[in-house]
Write a structure and sequence with these properties.
Layout (H helix, E strand, L loop, with lengths): L2 H29 L11 E3 L8 E5 L3 H4 L10 E5 L17 E7 L1 H4 L9 H12 L4 E7 L5 H12 L6 E5 L2 H10 L12 E3 L8 H20 L1 H11 L22 H21 L3 E5 L9 H12 L5 H21 L3 E3 L1 H4 L15 H19 L2
Parallel strand pairs: 4-5, 4-6, 6-8, 8-9
Antiparallel strand pairs: 1-7, 2-3
Helix pairs in contact: 1-7, 4-13, 5-9, 6-9, 7-8, 9-11
Length: 381
């Protein structure tokens, strides 16, 4: 048996023993009667963000590249500021007249775009050059975030920025969760909005044995050597995917979905965002999500098969996705909110989108131009 295998076995046994001991201790404690009510931080609302003050150079691996079009397989730099926002590459104004915050998921994060051309960076440059005001833009996009995560981000760290405008774009990540659970409050830990603080990386012994490599690499990535990990990971393991299906156990067939409940959850979340922003004297702006839905049909159908793993047909997926963009339009009209309709304005081709929803560099530049023109009109009102 190799030394590495022996080390992994020792690590696994140690973790399993600690976990079992902790569970036993918890059981003993639960049987005793306390003379007081405990108050503390046993549970937390999740601030799902990029860890502050970090730098990474990330390259899409070979497996990822098999499923995309018109994406350069190169190193993409990402710098995170002390508030967990992606740095736009433009020097920040000390006392800006206008502050704009973008919130969303990976389609706002735009990880696989050179940092100077991520659309929030483009927006910042265009607005500075075309207006007579000093302007700062913050990119609060995080891969996997849904609209509920963005609401928490606005509460926890967006409002203290005192932004004049907060721009929200959500669809696919809300779709991904709600199509499986129909609720923001029923979710795997990776997408949860409320978690037990003592719920470690390994939820069960079986889970530990299946995912020990995944969790050890995650530990290295997040705690031990994040910069070294981000550099070595795509070079040493270009053809390896440390994959764990985060929605395992949450699958739901289209025929079993209550689409009205799913839509109402999304509608309530987006409306809550609008009202929260206004309560803090911030002007909300909504964006639909650009996409290649129903275009490049063969690619789209194959993408749905990979993404939904047989839970929905391409037609069913398209219908629900389109409806969620339509809900965003309806809320904008009902609440008199500025709408930037990227679904209508971003051409639905691989020239601008490297998969069904994610922008490549050309798409990000185009989106930056479109968004900056719309925002300039808002600022100059």
């Amino acid at each position: 048996m190799s030394l590495i295998k022996k080390i992994l076995i020792v690590v696994f046994i140690s973790i399993a023993t600690l976990k079992i001991s902790d569970m036993g201790f918890g059981f003993i404690q639960s049987q005793s009667i306390s003379s007081s009510l405990a108050k503390g931080t046993g549970r937390s609302i999740v601030l799902r963000e990029l860890n502050p003050n970090q730098y990474a150079s990330i390259r899409p691996n070979n497996n990822y590249m098999k499923d995309v079009e018109n994406l350069a397989q190169t190193d993409y730099e990402i710098n995170i500021d002390d508030n967990g926002f992606i740095i736009t590459c433009n020097a920040k104004e000390l006392n800006p007249e206008i502050t704009i915050l973008f919130l969303g998921g990976s389609t706002t994060e735009t990880l696989y775009v050179p940092e100077i051309n991520r659309f929030p960076s483009v927006v910042e440059r265009r607005l500075r050059s075309n207006s007579l005001k000093t302007i700062n833009v913050f990119n609060g996009g995080v891969s996997g975030n849904n609209s509920m995560h963005s609401i928490f981000a606005l509460l926890a760290k967006g409002i203290p920025l005192q932004p004049n405008y907060v721009v929200l774009m959500h669809n696919i990540n809300d779709f991904a969760l709600l199509s499986k659970t129909e609720s923001y409050w029923v979710a795997p830990r990776s997408r949860a909005v409320l978690v037990d603080n003592d719920d470690g990386k390994f939820s069960t012994i079986e889970d530990s044995s299946r995912n020990i490599l995944f969790n050890l690499t995650k530990l290295a990535k997040n705690s031990l050597a994040p910069n070294l990990y981000s550099y070595l990971r795509p070079r040493l393991f270009a053809d390896v995917t440390f994959y764990r299906d985060e929605f395992e156990g949450f699958t739901k067939k289209y025929i079993d979905l209550d689409l009205k409940v799913m839509e109402q959850q999304f509608r309530s979340s987006i409306t809550s965002f609008v009202k929260l922003s206004r309560a803090w004297n911030i002007e909300p702006i909504l964006m639909t999500q650009g996409n290649r839905i129903d275009h490049d049909l063969e690619y789209f159908q194959n993408w749905v098969i990979r993404y939904q793993r047989g839970e929905m047909t391409a037609r069913e997926f398209a219908d629900v996705y389109k409806r969620m963009n339509e809900v965003t339009r309806e809320i904008a009209a009902q609440e008199n909110v500025t709408l930037i309709d990227l679904d209508a304005e971003i051409p639905k081709t691989n020239e601008f989108l490297y998969d069904t929803i994610h922008l490549n560099e050309a798409g990000s530049i185009l989106m930056g131009e479109l968004v900056s023109k719309k925002l300039l009109n808002v600022i100059q009102r």
